[in-house]
Fold this sequence. Notes:
The chain is an alpha/beta fold.
Amino acid sequence: MAESKPKFIKSDSRVAIIGSGLIGRCWAMLFARAGYSVCVYDIDADQVKGALEATLPMLSTMEAKGLLGDGQTSSEVHQRITGCSQLSEAMEGAFHIQECVPENVELKKKVFESLDELASDMVVLASSTSCISPSKFTEKLKHRSQCIVAHPVNPPYYISLVELVPAPWTDPAVIQRTRSLMTEIGQSPVTLKKEANGFILNRLQYALIMEAWRLVEDGICSPEDVDTAMVEGLAPRYSFMGIFEVMHLNAQGVNDYCHRYGANITTVCESQTPARQLSGPTLDTVNQAMEARTPVKELDKRRKWRDERLAALAVHKKEMAGKDIQK
Ligand code: NAI
């Protein structure tokens, strides 16, 4: 695929979403919000119908929070989303395909084989997979150089990160083009230079989960205090600055930080092995604490609260973006 490919004209440009469950619906809204025509396909026709119905109220909420942009209304954005019952119809004229079928490597292989059969030489075939490396399901394809993982974070309209993971055979132009597209639709892409189990986000998240577990298992503190340390200690800075920038500002630059604290960090981390099993009495302790906070039967209510908080944070970050002294 040539790097010099002309820029897409949005009104003529179609995106196809393959699988219209939770994440497929979110992608449909993001692409439509950016002006693209979106065709949603699913093996289950009821899911397509459900996606078309569910996205309108979600877009209305985004409109009410000022997150649709360009003064567009939710119904204008919604009109750009259509459903289709045939894969070939969904892919007809699409320049970007976003696969969103369940997380199962055999299913991804099967779906990508079907996409490969219908793909032109110009289309990008992106998978939303959370943790399957693209080489596991694209190796044998004719169009394998056009395949990439574009992994969003739920809910993508409030959390903008998209992890781009190329297979060893992905064309660099495909990586670049997908990165530009993600930026254009309002997301924040990061690119892995090579495949890595857990990509970036989950490698960081799992390191935190493991240490939280160790703190409880070793009787250092309660599950509630681990969560308080996160929410009231680490998270406020991390919602607008990354790990390396926090280090940079917490001393006279990152060199000074490593000089002052590096040896102690290494000593602490050397004591943080081996990985623990997430089961047994520690699981009982954590479960008891979480049940006391939110019984499982009330999780939906708490999820609504979480999404409200995330929406408020997204609005705040959008407002601050224009005022950020670094921009
Ligand atoms: P889901 O179960 O909500 O939706 C999957 C949809 O795919 C269903 O509507 C199903 O009917 C459809 N489907 C199944 N086989 C199909 C086929 N052969 N052709 C077309 N459609 C087919 O799943 P969800 O949560 O939307 O996940 C989709 C992908 O996104 C997975 O790879 C998942 O790991 C990834 N992802 C999920 C996140 C989440 O929080 N749920 C976050 C980020 C990525």
